[in-house]
Specification:
The complex is a heterodimer.
Chain A (H helix, E strand, L loop, with lengths): L4 E3 L2 E5 L4 E6 L6 E7 L6 E6 L5 E4 L2 E5 L5 E6 L8 E8 L7 E2 L3 E6 L1
Parallel strand pairs in A: 2-11
Antiparallel strand pairs in A: 1-3, 3-8, 4-5, 4-9, 6-7, 7-8, 9-10, 9-11
Chain B lengths: L4 E3 L2 E4 L5 E6 L6 E7 L6 E7 L2 E5 L6 E5 L4 E6 L8 E9 L2 E4 L3 E5 L1
Parallel strand pairs in B: 2-11
Antiparallel strand pairs in B: 1-3, 3-8, 4-5, 4-9, 5-6, 7-8, 9-10, 9-11
The chains are: A mainly beta, B mainly beta.
């Protein structure tokens, strides 16, 4: 099935470092969502973006809706061990009902 | 805590059998979507129900079917199970464009 490209695929970082990841698509989206998934659990919604260029924060997380509407970015500042998990982006085209998910970025934080 | 629950948590079936997975959405969320998530991949859209009618479908065969009930619960039924159906099945309820996922049902087909 169709999936969006996320990079990096995985990353190890030191506690306290900032993290950046991105999601790209060949299609234009009108809504971007970012999720975090822990092993054996469902994805948890972190941030929703609705407008090109929009920058939205949720605590230490900041996400941006790319101007081209074909990409989105997620930053985590001052990472902590509980940030470990898989981060997924998901895009939705206006007038459709089907979210397309990314391939995921696996984050590991070294204490 | 998303308020979305799924049952059972885990399930083991053999090839050719049928399975029913259940989801209870948040009150007031009249849209529910089902996803299949294979190991190491992102969720893949199966279908969506809105007010008890199928609203759209992904690239899954007809042996994947669903139902949505007025009490915000829903079911995913899979007939003639195949080995490749082994995955985490997720339901997500939504109002507007924000989807909230349940914890999933891990299905293993032997």
């Amino acid at each position: 099935g169709q999936q969006l490209n996320q990079s990096p695929q995985s990353m190890f970082i030191q506690e306290g470092e900032d993290v950046s990841m991105n999601c790209t698509s060949s299609s234009i989206f009108n809504t971007w969502l970012w999720y975090k998934q822990d092993p054996g659990e469902g994805p948890v919604l972190l941030i929703a973006l609705y407008k090109a260029g929009e920058l939205t924060s949720n605590g230490r997380l900041t996400a941006q809706f790319g101007i081209t509407r074909k990409d989105s970015f997620l930053n985590i500042s001052a990472s902590i061990p509980s940030d470990v998990g898989i981060y997924f982006c998901a895009g939705l085209t206006s007038g459709t009902y089907k979210y397309i998910f990314g391939t995921g970025t696996r984050l590991k934080v070294l204490a | 805590e998303t308020g979305v629950t799924q049952s059972p948590t885990h399930l083991i079936k053999t090839r050719g059998q049928q399975v029913t997975l259940r989801c209870s959405s948040q009150s007031g969320h009249n849209t529910v979507s089902w996803y299949q998530q294979a190991l190491g991949q992102g969720p893949q859209f199966i279908f969506q129900y809105y007010r008890e009618e199928e609203n759209g479908r992904g690239n899954f065969p007809p042996r994947f079917s669903g139902l949505q009930f007025p009490n915000y619960s829903s079911e995913l039924n899979v007939n003639a199970l195949e080995l490749d159906d082994s995955a985490l099945y997720l339901c997500a309820s939504s109002v507007g464009d924000e989807q909230f996922f349940g914890p999933g049902t891990r299905l293993t087909v032997l």
